[in-house]
Design brief:
The complex is a heterodimer.
Chain A: H1 10-19, E1 24-33, E2 43-47, E3 52-54, H2 62-75, E4 79-83, E5 100-107
Antiparallel strand pairs in A: 1-2, 1-5, 2-3, 4-5
Chain B: H1 3-14, E1 19-24, E2 30-33, H2 42-54, E3 58-62, E4 65-72, E5 76-81, H3 85-96, E6 99-104, E7 120-122, H4 126-133, E8 139-143, H5 148-159, E9 165-168, H6 172-184, H7 189-192, E10 195-196, H8 208-224
Parallel strand pairs in B: 5-6, 5-8, 6-7, 8-9, 9-10
Antiparallel strand pairs in B: 1-2, 1-4, 3-4
Helix pairs in contact in B: 3-8, 4-5
Chain lengths: 112, 229
Amino acid sequence: MLNKDEKHSTLETALSWYEQGLNVAIATVISTWGSSPRPTGSQLVVNEERQFEGSVSGGCVETAVIEEAMDVMHTGLPRLLSYGVSNEQAWEVGLACGGQIEVYVEPLSGDK
Amino acid sequence: MKASTLKTLIQAKGQGQAVVLVTSLENHSQLVFFPEATETDGPLGGAVRDGFRTDRSRVVEFEGKRHFIQVINQPLKLLIIGAVHIAQTLIPMAQSCGYVVTLIDPRRAFASNDRFPGVAVRTEWPDKALTALGLNSRTAVVTLTHDPKFDEPALIEAMDSDVFYIGALGSRRTHLARCERLREAGVSEEKLERIQAPIGLDIGATSPAEIAVSIMGEITSALRMRVNR
């Protein structure tokens, strides 16, 4: 049993948003190479108001993943993202640590 | 992910049950597997059983299609014997690290809800409480009372189980005396070596909060640096 003061887990946060009627997407790290900040299975959940909980990196790619998650909520279609070593160009999203990650982003949907 | 799948995952976690979620990265279908129901044949069943055994999430490919095998393990548990000052800072720290914490102390004056809000408290005798709560390889046990009559029954219970960490507060000298008593009670040397004492990493901690940091560091190291079973 969870105590009432215990923090909600990332997935519980996703469910509570969904039950409030918000669109929700779940992003999961499915593979990593080299030195990646968060291990496989790490999750970030996002709602349609761009509120998010959890992480898929050390803050390096979260902004980009949230934007992709907004799209996924809109289209209702999952997508696979891949991020690698930081590009020279400042506007490119990447991992400064030199690692690579694959992130699966899926919408939370009703049961049809 | 369907809302019903998410509810199944959350419910399993609440019941302390490990599950494996398999996601097809091609057609996006998802299946939840429980440990007792993995008689599934073929490469999928093998990958699921492998996931439960190794506690590793990974992408596997079969029939030319990629699948993500996500292991959602049983929650980590920390059982603390002794509703003392150190416990007051150790509890929120462990909860932040993802542990479901239970505090055990038969002395009701110590284990009051006012001193320990937001944690499950049990006031039965420590060995009885540990048996009732269930000890497994995702459990850490810490004794903090300084009193052999509370600490030692709990230590005996913990040494007889496959918990991944056992720590006991007390100086080197206290621990020598403790080991002597436990030997007389018939505990083997091999089991005694499982007790981390003096408890915690050696970081020169003095205040209760600093000692809690050193304990949480030692528990983390026991969890993350152990050789894969």
